[in-house]
Amino acid sequence: MGTALITGASSGLGLEFAWQLAAARHNLVLVARDEERLNSVAERIRAVAGVGVEVLPADLARRDQVDRVADRLGQSARPVGLLVNDAGFGGSAGFFELPLAESERALDVMVRAVMVLSHAAGEAMMERGRGAICNISSVAAYMASGTYAAAKAWVLAFTESLSVALSGTGVTATAVLPGLTRTEFHERAQLDYGHYPDVAWLDPATVVTQALADVRRGIVVSTPSARYGVLGQIARHVPRWLIRALSGPSGR
Ligand SMILES: NC(=O)c1ccc[n+]([C@@H]2O[C@H](COP(=O)([O-])OP(=O)(O)OC[C@H]3O[C@@H](n4cnc5c(N)ncnc54)[C@H](OP(=O)(O)O)[C@@H]3O)[C@@H](O)[C@H]2O)c1
C-alpha cells in the first residue's frame, strides 16, 4: 500500500497501527496533537523499521487543521494508500453534566474529521483505482450511552455507506469495532474500569492485527477477537429496549 496516514498515532491503537504498518514496510504519516511525542515515535520507528515517517501535528477538533491533513491526503505526488481514522476520546460525565462544547468537540474529532478525511482520501484513491480507508468505531456503537456511543454508531453507519459508494472503484472501507482495549483511553477519560475482569480486556496488538487482516481482505465491519465478535452479534439482534436498559439511566 505504500504510505499509510494514521490519526491518533501518538498512543494506544494508533501507535500500534504505526508499528505494525511499519513492520509491513509502509511509510507513515503520523497525526495527533502532541508534536513532541509524535517526533519521538517517528524517530524510534525510523531507527527500528527503516521506513520513512512524516509527522503532521494537528488538532482534529479544529477545521483548519483537519484541512491541512486533508491536503496531505490529496497530494498526488506523495500518494497515501491507507488512511486510518483512529483519533478519539471518551468521557466519564453524562450528557447534561458536560459543557455542550465538549460534546461538540467529540463530534468534531470523531465525526467531522472522519468524514472530511475519508472524503479527501476517497477522492484521491479513486483516481488511482486503489486504496483503503479504515475507520475506528467501537462496540459502543451498539449502546445508548451518550455522545461517544452516538459518534461511534455514526462511524459504523458512515463506513458501511462509504463501502457502498466506493464499490467497484478498487478502494475499500472498513469500520473496526474494538471492545475494551488497554490503552490510555480510560485514564484520559477518567473512566475507572478497574472492576472489569481480565477476560473483558483486549491488547492493542490483537485488535490491530485483526483490523489490518480485515482491511487487507476488504471486510467492511471488523470486530476484533472472537468474544467481542459474539457480543457484537448479540448486541445487533437484541431488542433496543434491552440495550437502553443495559446502557444505564444516566446516559453515560
Ligand atoms: N481503548 C478502548 O477500549 C477503545 C475501545 C473502542 C474504541 N476505541 C477507539 O479507539 C481509538 C483510539 O483510542 P485509544 O484507545 O488508542 O486511546 P488513546 O491511547 O487515548 O489514543 C487516542 C489518540 O487520539 C489522539 N487524539 C485525541 N484527540 C485528538 C484531537 N483533538 N486531534 C488529534 N488527535 C487526537 C491522541 O493524541 P494526542 O493527545 O497527541 O492528540 C491519541 O493519539 C479511539 O477512536 C477510541 O474511541 C478505543
Q: Let me know the number of strands.
A: 7
Query: Could you name the CATH homologous superfamily?
Result: NAD(P)-binding Rossmann-like Domain
Radius of gyration: 17 Å
* Cα separation of the termini: 39 Å
Low-confidence blocks of residues:
none
Fraction in helix: 40-55%
Mean pLDDT: 96
How many domains is the backbone divided into? 1
Biggest sheet details:
7 strands, parallel
Query: Tally the helices: what do you get?
Result: 9
CATH domain class: Alpha Beta
CATH topology: Rossmann fold
> H/E order of the elements?
EHEHEHEHEHEHHEHH
Bound molecules: NADP nicotinamide-adenine-dinucleotide phosphate
What global shape is seen? globular
Supply the helix-strand structural class: alpha/beta
The strands making up the biggest β-sheet line up spatially as 3-2-1-4-5-6-7
Write the layout of secondary structure elements.
Layout: E1 3-7, H1 12-23, E2 27-31, H2 35-49, E3 53-55, H3 63-74, E4 82-85, H4 100-128, E5 131-136, H5 146-165, E6 171-176, H6 185-188, H7 204-216, E7 221-222, H8 226-237, H9 240-247
Parallel strand pairs: 1-2, 1-4, 2-3, 4-5, 5-6, 6-7
Bound molecules: NADP nicotinamide-adenine-dinucleotide phosphate (NAP).
NADP nicotinamide-adenine-dinucleotide phosphate binds next to α1 and α6.
Q: Which keywords apply here?
A:
252 residues; alpha/beta; Rossmann fold; seven-stranded parallel sheet; 9 helices; 7 strands; globular; binds NADP nicotinamide-adenine-dinucleotide phosphate
